[in-house]
TrEMBL record:
Protein name per UniProt: Sel1 repeat family protein
UniProt organism field: Thalassotalea euphylliae
Amino acid sequence: MRSTLATLLVALFIAVTLYLQTYQLDEHQTSISRASSGMLEEVPLETVADDQVRARCAEDDAYTECGESLAKFPFPNSFSQSSNTASIALIAPEGWKLSTSLLEQLNQLETLAREGSVHAAYILAQNLTYCFYSPVDEQSYQTRVNRALDNNEDDRFLVNLNEKYEYCQGVNQTYKNQFVEYLERAAKSGNVNAMVDYGVAHTELLVKIKSETESTLNARTQVLAAQQKYLKVAAQHGNVKAIARLADDLWRQKFGHNDGVRALAYLYLVLELTTDSQIYSRYEWLEQRMIERLSLIEVEQARELTRKLKSELKTP
């Protein structure tokens, strides 16, 4: 009885929020249009907020943002082969999300990626990331619905859970793990957005997946080295999200060494490049914290390094 009631409630929520979803789709398409124009509007991942999302995912991985941190930046890839552009546009008319369920387009995307399309590899990585925490079967889905009702989750949560289940149905967890492989392939081929996505991805998740084929120590070493490398390259292209993450990670000594000067240098670069007032305020506050812990000489070294980094930016 409860299972039937839960299913009916989900259907009702979907109907009630249809108009809202239409509005959100228009908003999503607008963001893609802005990205296509080349505007620097990416938002750096905030460490505190990211940790909160991860904690929520651990509790209930149907949470709206679980697995979407990569997929929500659907920038077109200028390195993809023109011969595949039309095919990919038909498959993913909204930038990264497919026109059908993932399973229906999986073989075609795989074929395009094998043929060398960096864009196809990146789209596949984004979709597998989006589906990473989706329910694997009807029983799992129903369990999530019941849990959501017990936790008094709102309508949007249930609608997103249903949409994700329908979109990702039929793709098993083993295949979902391959998002790392396709993301690396796109990043190694020069896709800046793939580099950023890999750089800001949850390190422990990447290590866990890579540990399936090698030792945990080697996996962690490789992941951290790749994350730092990709973020640095993306930063050289003026990607604010990558620059901001480097400032955060270097300050937190994520890469195993204390480099407060470089952290502050990247922070200053964020302040110079960002057009987002909230990002500016956050990093202005962080600047004061860094300055309090660094010497005057180190602060001046950071300013000098910022000037050097800015002069080396690869702008279109």
